Input
Amino acid sequence: MHPTKFTREEYQFAIVVLGQFNPAIIQPAWLVSKGWIGETEGSKAKNLIVHAELARMDFESIGIEVTQERFLLKTTQEPYFPILRDFAINIFETLIETPIKAVGLNSIMHYKFENQKARDEFVWFVQPRPTWSKVLKDPRILKAEMVDRRVQGRPGHLRVSLEVSELLRENGCKFALNDHYDISSSTGLAAKELVSILREECDRNIQEHSRLIGDLWNLFYPDNQGT
Output
């Protein structure tokens, strides 16, 4: 018997840029000086670390973590998804000479099922158990992952993984979706290409990520009553 409930409990959206960065300049005072956050919000930064190899800070709605090779912006508040996109655009329109190799538009969704049995039925539908049962005694899925090469549009790929949710261990699934875009421009133009990707792809990716999970659910249970 199929489960009748499939509800999303948390949704994190993140923009991850790969390149060469100077973490020391990414600090609340700099963000305030550019007008991207207010003085009050800047003064309330949590988990604040700023030095040559790592900058980390959490504001009320947005988290930032920067190393010399990776720039991460994230939020778990859906109304702030477009704000996060605009925040990233502002930063890289300012850091226009930054060498950049790639960007990932990432969604992490935690879904709750009625019970563990319902969750496991769905997982085994996505990753069938019979084949593994022929070579293992008691197979359990730790993580299932698929990669879909992008055949149209910008070069890159979509990576989708499914595993037990660390937030909802008894009856939850975590989906992680990474839309990866390679940056082909040379230094000096790479940030402009990144900004174009953020402007043109971000909203569509967010919609596609939710649609993909919904499509999987509808294949499993055509009379879907989940959300």
About this structure: The chain has a mean pLDDT of 90. Residues 190-220 form the longest helix (31 residues). The chain has six helices and nine strands. The radius of gyration is 20 Å.
